[in-house]
């Protein structure tokens, strides 16, 4: 970190946004003085490599004694299993329950709101409940993302 950024939280945050901007929300989460790289197993090392390339491009240095590297992988819980077992929502109550359960895990599903829009549109009042092919695709996407193994690498 350049010397002039020491003890300047706002400036440092702006610097982090400049360095990691294109990747924030895709596979990196920036907070205070650290960051976490996350993603599925297949793309994770490409993501980490991209972050290190950004460091090199912006002439940032990591001091190993100040870095904490951790690896987190989650198993499919009972709640996720319940979501995976839902074939097709039959009524608005099931859709609301499904969306509540998936929203709890939204940090593992990129663009959940956009991806699940066909499903949430089933909850609009005074509109006939109709399951379309788009709803089935959206449900499959949500299930696929929940069932995949995300990897979280935290440096900071």
Automatic annotation (TrEMBL):
UniProt cross-references to InterPro entries, sorted A to Z: DNA/RNA_pol_sf, Rev_trsase/Diguanyl_cyclase, RNA-dir_DNA_polymerase
Gene3D superfamilies, sorted: 3.30.70.270
Q: Which residues form a coiled coil?
A: none
- Record-given protein name: Reverse transcriptase domain-containing protein
What organism does this protein naturally occur in?
A: Physcomitrium patens
